[in-house]
Every structure is written in structure tokens, then in C-alpha cells.
User: Fold Large ribosomal subunit protein bL33 from Amycolatopsis acidiphila.
Amino acid sequence: MAKNDVRPVVKLRSTAGTGYTYVTRKNRRNDPDRLVMRKYDPMARVHVEFREER
Assistant:
């Protein structure tokens, strides 16, 4: 029960429009806002921003 409260699983969707996603965990206490990370999108073959999807 406590495992899912602090570090939930979140989906990161590419802003390039390819539909590619990463799945990761985040600490809700340190990052209460939506997570934004710059990662590699293999479908677009470039590094783009990935935003948290709820």
C-alpha cells in the first residue's frame, strides 16, 4: 500500500507526436508537478521532451 503512494508509476509521452512512451517512477514528494524529461525518441531519431501523462 505505501509503495504506490510515494513513488507512483508514470508514463512519459513524446512531444514529437510519434506516440512513443517511456515508463518510469517518480517521487511525489520531490516532484509534485508533472515530470518533463529530455530523452531519445527512436521513432523520430532525435532527443525530444517527454511529458508526464496522467
Remarks:
- The first helix runs from residue 2 to 6.
- The chain has one domain: 2-53.
- Strands lie at 9-14, 21-25, 36-41, 46-53.
